[in-house]
């Protein structure tokens, strides 16, 4: 599997392209602020043809470039229905104070928007990705993982040493702890976590060192591969 990425814009949001190999079809995950040029560079470098854009949630720093990226390549965007409204109303995902920082920014939905659901298996670009609904950061947050749990695209659910904030509209701390307990902790230690911000990590490393996963642990069910 080919996975390449870069941190986009002032928010340094990780945007990824994922393909079976160079020269094949791919999906794009979370094209954030000013990500269009970086995406095109990766597509040229690896000779990739995108077939879809996958969104871990609807916050502005993850969806900023979704409409131009989808429009340039005539591909659909996939997002959970609970966050779909943020594609055209990004200020709704921020506090009143934060929203004032984005005055004058207008976004629109891509022409083709498709909705994600918990447990769905997406078969795209010769890949299979399992969708896990992981609310708590936003109501419609999701993560994507390979069926064998080798790789998890965690969005803003889980970071190296931390987790996503839960104090914005649609966020809830007990809910994000439940998502961590039910969707992260059951994964094997060697699952590679590719987060929405910051460096990659593993479930095992976070299980051992991340204080939020330790807090979530009493709510987790049986674990696998430990």
From TrEMBL:
The organism's taxonomic lineage, starting at the top: Bacteria, Bacillati, Actinomycetota, Actinomycetes, Streptosporangiales
Keyword terms: Hydrolase, Metal-binding, Zinc
Signal peptide span: none
Organism: Nonomuraea monospora
Transmembrane segments: none
Name listed for the protein in its UniProt record: MBL fold metallo-hydrolase
Domain of life where this protein originates: Bacteria
Domain annotation Metallo-beta-lactamase: ranges: 12-197
Cofactor (UniProt): Zn(2+)
């Amino acid at each position: 599997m080919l996975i390449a990425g870069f941190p986009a814009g002032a928010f340094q949001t990780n945007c990824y392209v994922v393909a079976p190999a160079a020269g094949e079809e791919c999906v794009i995950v979370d094209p954030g602020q000013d990500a269009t040029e970086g995406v095109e560079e990766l597509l040229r470098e690896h000779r990739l043809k995108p077939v879809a854009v996958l969104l871990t949630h609807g916050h502005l720093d993850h969806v900023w470039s979704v409409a131009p990226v989808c429009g340039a390549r005539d591909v659909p965007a996939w997002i959970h229905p609970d966050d779909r409204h943020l594609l055209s109303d990004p200020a709704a995902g921020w506090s009143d104070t934060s929203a004032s920082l984005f005055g004058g920014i207008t976004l629109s939905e891509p022409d083709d928007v498709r909705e994600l659901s918990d447990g769905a298996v997406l078969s795209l670009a010769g890949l299979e990705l399992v969708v896990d609904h992981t609310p708590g950061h936003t109501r419609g947050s999701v993560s994507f993982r390979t069926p064998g749990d080798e790789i998890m695209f965690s969005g803003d659910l889980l970071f190296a040493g931390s987790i996503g904030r839960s104090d914005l509209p649609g966020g809830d701390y007990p809910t994000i702890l439940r998502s961590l307990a039910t969707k992260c902790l059951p994964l094997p230690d060697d699952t590679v976590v590719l987060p929405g911000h910051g460096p990659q990590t593993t479930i095992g490393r976070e299980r051992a060192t991340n204080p939020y996963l330790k807090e979530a642990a009493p709510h987790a069910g049986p674990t696998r591969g430990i």
